[in-house]
Amino acid sequence: MDTLQRKIQYYSKRKFFRFGVPFMLLMIGGSFGLKQFAQLRYTFSKKGSLTVEEAEKHGLLMKKPEEVTLESEYAKVRDVDINNWENIRGPRPWEEETLQAPQAANVGH
Fold it and tell me: Contact 55/62 with Cβ under 8 angstroms?
C-alpha cells in the first residue's frame, strides 16, 4: 500500500500526467461525444418534401409546380401600386378583433 501511494505521488508531480493525460482524454472523449451529437442531427432530419396528399390532409391547397412560374408571379406584382399605400396596424392577441386601429393619416405631414 505504501508503494502505491509513492507511485501516485510520483506520477502526480509529473507534468504529463497532470496536464497531458487529462488533455488527451478530453480530446478523445470529446470526439466520441461530438460523433453522437452529430448523429442525432442526421437521424432526426430525414424530412422529405411535402406531398400534395399530405398537404390536403392538413387543409392546405398546393398548386402544381407548372402553375407557378416566374412570369406569372411577376405579372401579379407588376400591377401593384407601391407608391400609394397605408400602414394599418393589426390587432394584438390580447385586443379584441373588432377594435379598430387609430387612424394616423396626418402623422409625418
Answer: yes
Q: Are 18 and 12 in contact, with CB atoms under 8 Å apart? A: yes
* Interatomic CA distance for residues 23 and 38, integer angstroms: 22
- pLDDT tens over the chain, length 109 residues: 788 889 888 888 888 888 899 999 999 999 988 888 888 877 777 677 777 888 888 888 888 778 888 998 899 899 888 898 889 888 888 887 665 545 544 444 4
Can you tell me the distance from the alpha carbon of 89 to that of 46, in angstroms, rounded to the nearest whole number? 39
**Per-residue CA distances from 58 to 50, 51, 52, 55, 95 (Å):** 11, 11, 10, 5, 28
